[in-house]
Write a structure and sequence with these properties.
Low-confidence stretches: 756-760
Mean pLDDT: 93
Number of helices: 27
Structural class: alpha/beta
Radius of gyration: 26 Å
Distance between the termini: 75 Å
Shape: globular
Strand content: 5-15%
Strand order of the largest sheet: 1-10-9-8-7-6-5-2
């Protein structure tokens, strides 16, 4: 019985990778220094796996930005706009990710549109979408992976490389070509995989992990046949193949997968726990069954007694040599080490497990199953009554059909809002946050360390808000925001102010590239003890005659960007969050805030991978949003925001949410979301992003005029807003001012000329 993991977090114990990559972009460190930092992080992570006595050290899971982008570069899938003479491979890589590589070496090259970015299945991790052409050719440039393998081997580790499977890689590029055309590329791609696998064998690799997570999705017969044909072509190439699936059950793909000519199959034993016995019955006796029984998506300690009782008869049936133990998926999605969290009591700590602890859990379970360690397992215990709130439970019981709808329809609300707000045609605004400068970060840190009194801290925060309002006034925006200087994170900020949620000290998880987040941990019933945003929203509104948006994070986004309790349905937790935040909507409205934005950036990412489960999720996700918004008066304008998602799957939900205005990421997807909204009969107001904030490029007036015009080609002019794709916290003030000034100028020009076309 062998043990392994599917992957380890890349960022380093103290986010060393983030800081090194960003320093490289600023030209503060050299290429060699960046690579040295990366190598050191890999060495630390390999040593952790070896020290815990895992049988394999997983190699190839590391990335400087994104593992899907890594494979695009390795396969030569580099769009022509990124090809520049005399630019090194790493800078090309970063240009694909961000539109610019950064540093002095990049200043002489024209900025380009970055690759499209979207969510990795139903997680909060973002990957860069492969950009295929119908005549795409592939070539193998794999030396970087081979260097990592040789490095690990030189340290004495037994190496299991991880590669992205050919069918999943093609499927991930489905936004660049129609699905049918993607499979036409397969005959060109497979020879590259043959070469890759043969070279891995030459490196004395015994097992290779091939990730094919699309096997837990609804794929049609054509894709199933493509799997069979592809793996039969690969069967005699390279090392033994461990085909890895995760994020769900195989279901209709199970029979096909078990027949593939592979030596081993990994299944998700957490989300697919009920399928384990069936897989064990069907998988041919000469194949290894790897079971991911340690959760790679959540931070709760494994229910070891339950898993032992499940696996013990299975091991006896299959034989210990046929069973491997591992994590359900890569540990990319959880923090690295619980040792940094000393602020909690033993009841909480005893139930938590981060990446390092999950390595221990894998090996401990193996030892117990093999009778190499005493069975000292107890039944899993839930939290004590201290996390129960009778008032929350009572409010949940009082929910009725009237709790999910506003009192007036959109047409009546729109008329009331136009009369109250008196906004111009094509109103301009931003999504919420403004640059989180080093001074702001230091200010919050000093407050946390009690170097500032509450009064002094609030006064300095007000200074930052005043500056943000002044800048927006000068730029000429129509609807302003207070800039969120008091918020370190859109979810973490609210979590800190809600009962039933705890915050980590160092629980960082990669979201995309160098962007890391600290997901809160929901441990009990959720309530809002006191107003969270009202005073600062009031202050911001007092500084201007223009409307200032109240900024809230929606219940489903908080849910999907947190580690969630597992002792009740996610729907119940979402409704608790909605009721708690409904109180904030009431208080903002009573304080004179006329526009309230309820961000649901993560609604799409929670969509189940299987179609049969999607309708139920979207039903309660929309209901949770409407619980918050139902208390708004007709003249109170409710906004929501979503970004970097595949909106076509949730069009019905966007309509059912019934927000007065929805702002959406649209630049990298070339405004296709606006066309989709129009086709699906969306009748409310829409703000498609015209400025890609995840790139350091400053958009031109001309480019933004074209994007606004594209939007107005699909929807009536009077229903369009103009805004960036997302919040501006990661950008710097000089570039923000230039970009937003260009956005306002583009809007002015469009206002001047487009109405003529509509009149004609």
């Amino acid at each position: 019985m062998l043990t392994h993991i599917l992957g380890f977090p890349r960022i380093g114990l103290q986010r060393e990778l983030k800081f090194a990559v960003e320093a490289y972009w600023k030209n503060d460190i050299s290429y060699e220094q960046l690579q040295a930092t990366a190598k050191n992080i890999r060495h630390q992570h390999w040593k952790l796996q070896a020290d815990h006595n895992l049988d394999f050290v997983t190699v190839g899971d590391f990335s400087l930005y994104d593992h899907v982008l890594d494979w695009s570069v390795r396969f030569g899938v580099i769009p022509q706009r990124f090809h520049q003479s005399q630019i090194n491979e790493l800078d090309t890589y970063f240009r694909m990710a961000r539109g610019r590589a950064g540093g002095k070496n990049d200043q002489s090259y024209l900025p380009v549109n970055a690759s499209e970015m979207t969510k990795w299945f139903d997680t909060n991790y973002h990957y860069l979408v492969p950009e295929f052409r119908s005549d795409q050719d592939f070539l193998l440039n794999i030396e970087s992976l081979f260097e990592e393998i040789r490095d690990a081997q030189s340290l004495g580790y037994k190496v299991k490389p991880v590669i992205l499977g050919p069918l999943t890689y093609l499927w991930l590029g489905r936004r660049s070509l129609p699905i049918v055309d993607l499979l036409n590329l397969l005959p060109k791609l497979l020879p590259v995989y043959v070469d890759l696998l043969q070279q891995l064998r030459d490196l004395n690799i015994e097992w290779v992990q091939i990730d094919e997570p699309i096997l837990v999705m609804d794929i049609d017969d054509q894709w199933q046949h493509a799997f069979s044909n592809s793996y039969f072509q690969l069967q005699n190439c390279g090392p033994k193949k461990l085909l890895t699936t995760y994020f769900g059950e195989l279901e209709s793909n199970l029979q096909m997968v078990c027949r593939l000519p592979i030596e081993g199959l990994h299944i998700d034993g957490v989300r697919g726990i009920d399928e384990i016995p069936r897989v064990a019955d069907i998988l041919p006796i000469h194949k290894i069954l790897s079971i991911g029984v340690i959760d790679g998506r959540n931070i709760w300690r494994n229910d070891a007694l339950k898993v032992f009782n499940l696996l013990k008869p299975l091991v006896e049936k299959l034989g210990k040599d046929r069973v491997w133990l591992g994590t359900s998926c890569s540990l990319l999605h959880v923090p690295i080490d619980l040792e940094y969290e000393k602020q909690w009591d033993n009841e909480i700590l005893s139930k938590l497990s981060f990446a390092n602890q999950k390595l221990q859990e894998v090996v401990q379970l193996k030892n117990i199953l093999l009778d190499q360690e005493p069975i000292s397992l107890k039944a899993y215990e839930t939290f004590s009554d201290r996390f129960y709130d009778a008032n929350v439970q009572e409010r949940m019981q009082m929910l009725s059909q009237h709790s999910f709808s506003r009192s007036h329809n959109f047409t009546d609300r729109w008329a009331a809002q136009q009369n109250h707000l008196k906004l111009p045609l094509l109103p301009t605004t931003t999504i919420g946050s403004f640059p989180q400068t080093q001074e702001i970060r230091q200010l919050r840190k000093n407050y946390q360390l009690q170097r500032l009194t509450e009064h002094d801290y609030q006064e300095k925060i007000k200074d930052e808000i005043k500056y943000a309002i002044q800048q927006q006034e000068e730029i000429g925006l129509d609807v302003l925001v207070h800039g969120e200087p008091e918020r370190n994170d859109m979810v973490g900020f609210f979590a800190e102010h809600l009962a039933g949620i705890i915050i980590t000290n160092n629980g960082w998880v990669q979201s995309y590239g160098s962007r890391c987040v600290k997901p809160p941990i929901i441990i009990g019933d959720i309530a809002r003890p006191f107003p969270v945003t009202v005073l600062l929203s009031q202050y911001a509104q007092s500084l201007t005659k223009k409307p200032v948006k109240g900024m809230l994070t929606g219940p489903v986004t908080i849910l999907n960007w947190s580690f969630v309790r597992e002792d009740q349905p996610r729907r119940t937790t979402a409704f608790q969050l909605a009721l708690a935040l409904q109180d904030e909507v009431k208080d903002l409205q009573n304080a004179g805030i006329s526009i309230i934005q309820i961000d649901e950036a993560a609604l799409r990412e929670g969509l189940p991978l299987r179609k049969k489960a999607q309708a139920d999720y979207l039903d309660w996700a929309v209901q949770a949003f409407r619980i918050m918004s139902t208390v708004a008066k007709p003249e109170t304008q409710i906004h929501t925001h979503m970004c970097y998602s595949e909106f076509s799957d949730i069009m019905s939900a966007l309509i059912e949410m019934d927000a007065d205005v929805i702002t959406l990421e649209a630049v990298r997807s070339k405004m296709t979301v606006v066309q989709e909204l129009a086709v699906n009969g969306y009748c409310n107001q829409v703000g498609p992003g015209v400025y890609d904030i995840h790139s350091p490029n400053i958009p031109t007036v001309e480019a933004m005029i074209k994007r606004i015009q594209l939007a107005t080609n699909s929807l009536p002019l009077e229903r369009i807003w103009v805004n960036p794709d997302c919040g501006l916290k990661t950008r710097a003030w000089p570039e923000v001012k230039r970009a937003l000034s260009a956005m306002v100028e583009a809007t002015r020009i469009v206002r001047q000329y487009i109405p003529i076309a509509y009149e004609n």
